[in-house]
């Protein structure tokens, strides 16, 4: 399988004339049965876009688990600022996954910007094809959705691995109090062992109780 190397071509072109700052966003945990959804944010300015992309930076799903923590630390040091925004399983149950993603993304943007950005000169690059940030965030930031942005845009790849490592660490902590679900291995996704534990033990406070969990397909 050919591995696509993420680049800064898009970021450089946008920062050349149109914008002073890019905030790249990517989500982790959208399809999980348990745990929060996390949105990583990585900030890139014109000077930063001229720096070499760290060797081995990829969409987090393409980085071996044993290397992700080191790559996340490297990525966080490479970008100008980074953060992770969260929305809990209870919030997902309360407002739905799309609005919860918007809340998490808004929190990530506020964390890297201090709650104050020049909306006219700041662009958000959002992985995927749906702008969930604008549903929630109070400022009128320009949002550009990019399908496979986590694969192709290095700033989004950085946000991806930072969020993935943070959420995996959170699920490992939850595993300590609820070991039957093996969140240290499945990270809250619909593995066969996770579904069997739900059938045996029922739902925990960290499960998304509003979802049709019993009918969820096995993802791995």
Spans where pLDDT lies below 50 across 5 or more residues: none
Residue share in helix: 40-55%
CATH topology: Nucleotidyltransferase, domain 5
Mean pLDDT: 91
The CATH superfamily label reads Ribonuclease H-like superfamily/Ribonuclease H
Pattern of helices and strands: HEEHEHHEEHHHH
Derived structural class: alpha/beta
Describe the sheet with the most strands. Answer: 5 strands, mixed
Our estimate of the beta-strand percent is 15-25%
Provide the number of structural domains: 1
How many H/I helical runs?
8
Provide the gyration radius in Å.
17 Å
CATH class label: Alpha Beta
CATH architecture: 2-Layer Sandwich
Q: In order across it, which strands form the biggest sheet? A: 3-2-1-4-5
Oligomeric organization of the protein chains: single chain
Give a description of the structure.
The protein has eight helices and five strands. The protein has one domain (9-167): Ribonuclease H-like superfamily/Ribonuclease H (Nucleotidyltransferase, domain 5). The mean pLDDT is 91. The two termini are 20 Å apart. A hairpin with an 8-residue loop joins β1 and β2. By secondary structure, it is α/β, with parallel strands linked by helices. It has a five-stranded mixed β-sheet with strand order 3-2-1-4-5. Its EC number is 3.1.26.4. It comes from Microbacterium istanbulense. It is an enzyme of class 3 (hydrolase). It is found in: Cytoplasm.
């Amino acid at each position: 399988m050919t591995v696509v190397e993420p680049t800064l071509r898009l970021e450089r072109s946008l920062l050349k004339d149109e914008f002073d700052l890019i905030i790249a966003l990517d989500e982790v945990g959208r399809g999980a049965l348990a745990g929060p959804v996390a949105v990583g944010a990585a900030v890139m300015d014109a000077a930063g876009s001229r720096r070499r992309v760290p060797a081995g930076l990829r969409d987090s799903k393409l980085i071996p688990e044993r290397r992700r923590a080191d790559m996340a630390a490297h990525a966080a040091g490479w970008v100008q600022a980074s953060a992770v925004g969260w929305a809990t399983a209870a919030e997902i149950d309360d407002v739905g996954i799309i609005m919860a993603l918007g809340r998490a993304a808004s929190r990530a943007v506020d964390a890297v910007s201090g709650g104050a950005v020049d909306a006219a000169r700041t662009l958000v690059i959002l992985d995927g094809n749906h702008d969930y940030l604008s549903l929630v965030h109070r400022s009128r930031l320009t949002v550009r959705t990019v399908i496979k942005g986590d694969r192709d845009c290095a700033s989004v790849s950085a946000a991806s691995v930072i969020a993935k490592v943070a959420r995996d660490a959170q699920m490992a902590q939850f595993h300590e109090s609820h070991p039957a679900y093996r969140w240290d291995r499945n990270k809250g996704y619909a593995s066969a062992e996770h579904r069997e534990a739900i059938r045996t033990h029922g739902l925990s406070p960290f499960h998304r109780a509003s979802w049709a969990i019993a009918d969820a397909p096995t993802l791995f």
